[in-house]
Design a protein that fits this description.
This protein is of the alpha+beta class. It is built from three helices and four strands; from the N terminus they run ααββαββ. 32% of the residues lie in helices and 33% in strands.
Length: 106
């Protein structure tokens, strides 16, 4: 019986661990702001968003920022202006989406 509980707990932890995003190498060099504009010497290179139709939702607001920083880094940016983070709820639970603008400053 104890072995069954151990297996169940292990599977639950494994499931939850898969829900969180890791900061990718490209995203670690991306600075970000919310409710502000990018510095004037930065050049906008694109927009980044979590596309819910591609199941890119996040499990928390901080997870949205991690994913947007990763996307900014992947397109060559080093600065992110987070324009919106939105919470959603449906039958499967709560999830978050967001979008922002990617810039190259350095």
């Amino acid at each position: 019986m104890k072995k069954q509980y151990t297996i169940i707990i292990f599977l639950m932890l494994l499931t939850f661990a898969g829900c969180f995003s890791a900061q990718l190498r490209e995203g670690t060099n991306v600075d970000y702001v919310t409710k502000q504009e990018a510095p004037s010497d930065c050049k906008k290179i694109g927009e980044v968003e979590l596309d819910l139709s591609k199941l890119e939702g996040a499990v928390s607001a901080s997870d949205v920022i991690v994913k947007l920083r990763n996307k900014t880094g992947q397109i060559g940016g080093d600065f992110l202006v987070v324009d919106a983070i939105e919470a959603h709820r449906d039958n499967s639970g709560r999830y978050y989406s967001g979008f922002g603008r990617a810039y190259k400053c350095k």
